[in-house]
Amino acid sequence: MTGFEMILPFLRPIQAHILDPDVSEIMVNGPEQVFIERGGYLEHIDGVSLNEKSLMVAVKNIARRLGDDISEEKPILDSRLPDGSRVAAVIPPCSLNGIALTIRKFNARHFGIDDLIRIGTITEELADRFADAVRTRKNILISGGTGTGKTTLLNILANFIPDGERVLVIEDTAEIQIRTSNLVRFEARRAQNGLPAVTIRELLKASLRHRPDRILLGEIRGGEAFDLLQLLNTGHSGTLSTVHANSAHQALSRFTTCVLQSEMDLPYRGIKSNIADSLNLLVQIERRLLLRSDFVRLSSGSDAHSYARRLIEDEKSSAQTSNVAPLGHPEASSTAQQDETPLSRAQASEEAVRRYITENAQDDWLAIFVRNSETGDVVQRVSPAQRIAGSDYQRWLRYMNAHGSDVYMSLNTFRDHAQGRTKADLKEIRHLYLDIDHEGPERLAAVLSDDTAPTPNYVFNTSPGKFQVVWRVEGFGPDEAESALRALVQRFGGDPAATDSTRVFRLPGFSNKKYEQDFQVTIRSEAPPNLVYRPEDFRVPSPEREQSPTASHSHREPARTNGGNLSQSERDLAYAIRHLKAGDDPDEIIRAIAGYRSVDQYDKRNPARVSAHKKPKPQYYAELTVTKAMANLGITRPAQAKAPAPAEKFGGEAELGPNR
Q: Is-contact 323 303, C-beta < 8 A?
């Protein structure tokens, strides 16, 4: 037996979660509480109860099966399954709420540098710098908090080591996965069953007698830091290691503190000076709670040396350097074309975004939404507006845009450090906007000449013949704003699905990737940016409830109507309202609309013309359409019916709106 089959007989109530490949960690807090980690987020498991006595028997049997022991005399268990998964337990009286059991599953997947590039954690340029640093035998220290991916990044970097080199790996618990022909692995051992402990420090000293070309130290935790520093100072290059710290500043302090744990009488500043002389690359990883995503901050070469030197010279340093990329947005090569204007396209887009943010949201937090329709990859982040406007953040967005992703930003502001883009996360309604998705020039002219709506502050040209009209506002709540948006849609036409106060819009200066040839999104001002409107400035009549169209349509083709100039979204909404009034099952209506919008629909009279474009997420679109129709009719959905899918976290985010 090599894995969970060794412990499953004792944990039948949670067996399904242990075997679930999407679950990375299982946590038992006494007999009544079980939590799991899935996709980086903790979930409470309802309906699972473990008898206290049975749980104690299970923990003791697990310990024995793994060659360990747990009792009142030795109330702590820390063992490893043969496949690398960790099993940890603490029993009363040390655990006050009952037996605590944590199983951290070993991830057998071998991540590569391309995976980090694909999800936007690093750029190709930064990946090349990493690869070059490893091949040229730079000493690299990776720093980060719990679960940020330090070992994952070390694994990835280790695979850049040339195959002809002899690699020696030292770990407290075996986790590093490296593919090389000449590999030696050492693992520390705790004192158990009458056997003495073997420490990392002892193994590090012993490693030098085995002629290693490279030494990979899993994590710096204690006095072994002194021996590692001695090793680096004597010219042993190409070493990789990790340290647990929440910033680059703390990483150096942590390294220094661990050296002091060796009980060697060395001055604190002298240790820091030695560290600065020995390290070539310091990589800081952070984990954001709003997404299961890792971000990289890099100090390298002379930058890392001068950075550490400044910390030595000024202990009160804020630990920020001008050459360190902001979190989540590492240095990215610009692929913008140098044409069309004296400014490059990249500079123009950065200037347009900076100007818009300066005029509208200087000290607020905004949501950035990046989606690649071809691959389905989605990244969503809520960040300070000034950071979004910064050059490093803009370089990252341009990189993503150049590689096939559409870039959007929220119209309204969100609470500081918000973890999602929901109404509950909204801080303030700052804008109303009308999404004109058909007959653009004519309907835009109607908006600009109509006296029931004030002059908009901005007009975005987001697609050929399509516009987003934006008003700066104050005094609106989310519901009041959405009511005003529906009134604007009814009067001037537009996308009725684009009336959510959490919507995002395409950033000016970036390309709309929806078309065969990229369309550059532009912005123009119609009214001064400091002109702010209140609810009484909008005299557009409230939307009347739609009367049932006379035509009858089948479920198989919900969107085909003789609706004249209605957009496809308006036809879908009209279809939903009509069939809800007829008493049809909402789930049947959802299935009909989702099926219709899952493929492109062509005009029978003109086969070259697409009459209805498929939606990237037709099920979510259909649920949202039916929900809006029910809201228009004042219908409450039955509890058993499906509700619109909420925004999921990174890796499977629901479509929250951008489809222009």
A: yes
Omega prior to 454 cis, within 30 of 0:
no
Tell me what the mean pLDDT of segment 14-26 comes to: 86
Q: For 393-421, write each residue's pLDDT tens digit.
A: 888 888 888 888 999 998 888 888 777 78
Q: Could you give the residue ranges of the DSSP H alpha helices within 24-173?
A: 52-65, 113-118, 124-135, 150-158
Question: In CATH, what number does 113-313 get?
Answer: 3.40.50.300
| Residue 41 CB neighbour total at 10 angstroms | 13
Q: Are 257 and 235 in contact (CB under 8 A)?
A: no
Instruction: Mark out the alpha helices in 493-567 (DSSP H runs).
Output: none
Q: What angle do CA 193, 194, 197 make, to 5 degrees?
A: 95
Give, rounded to a whole angstrom, the gap between the first and last alpha carbons of the chain: 54
Residue type, 413: T
Q: How far is CA 205 from the centre of its chain?
A: 40
Do 18 and 29 contact (CB within 8 A), yes or no?
Answer: no
Tokens of 155: 């694994």
DSSP string, 401-451: HHTT-EEEEESSEE-TT-SS-SGGGEEE--EEEEEE-SSHHHHHHHHHH-S
Q: Structure tokens of 409?
A: 């930003």
Interval 493-532: pLDDT, tens: 877 767 778 888 888 888 998 888 889 888 888 888 788 9
- E strand segments, 224-314: 240-244, 281-288, 293-300
Residues 6+ apart with CB under 8 A from 112: 156, 159
327 secondary structure, DSSP code: T
Q: Reduced to 3 states, what is the DSSP secondary structure of residue 220?
A: strand
The number of helix segments (H) and strand segments (E) in the chain equals 18, 27
The whole-number average pLDDT for the span 575-583 is 84
∠ CA 520-522-527, nearest 5°, is 175
Q: Do domains 113-313 and 360-386+402-537 have the same CATH topology?
A: no
pLDDT at 99 over 70: yes
Reduced DSSP (H G I as helix, E B as strand, rest coil) percent helix, strand, coil of the chain, to 5: 35, 20, 45
Q: Is the pTM of this model over 0.70?
A: no
Task: Look at residues 256, 237, 231, 260 and name the one whose alpha carbon lies nearest to residue 245.
Answer: 256
Nearest to 155 by CA among 252, 282, 240, 279: 240
For tokens 């000290």, what's the residue? 363
The alpha carbon of 391 is separated from its chain's Cα centroid by a whole number of angstroms, namely 20
Please tell me the predicted confidence (pLDDT) of residue 636: 66
The domain limits of the chain are 4-104, 113-313, 360-386+402-537, 553-660
The Cα–Cα gap between 163 and 160 comes to: 9
Fold exhibited by the domain 360-386+402-537: Alpha-Beta Plaits (3.30.70)
Per the DSSP assignment, residues forming a β-bridge with 198 are: 189
Cα(208)–Cα(92) distance, rounded to whole angstroms? 43
Which residues face 408 on adjacent strands? 369, 506
Q: Which of 416, 250, 244, 393 is nearest to 318 (CA)?
A: 250
Distance in angstroms (rounded) separating the CA atoms of residues 447 and 491:
9
For residues 616 and 626, what is the distance between their CA atoms, to the nearest angstrom? 17
CATH of region 4-104, choose from 3.40.1440.10, 3.90.25.10, 3.40.50.200, 3.30.450.90: 3.30.450.90
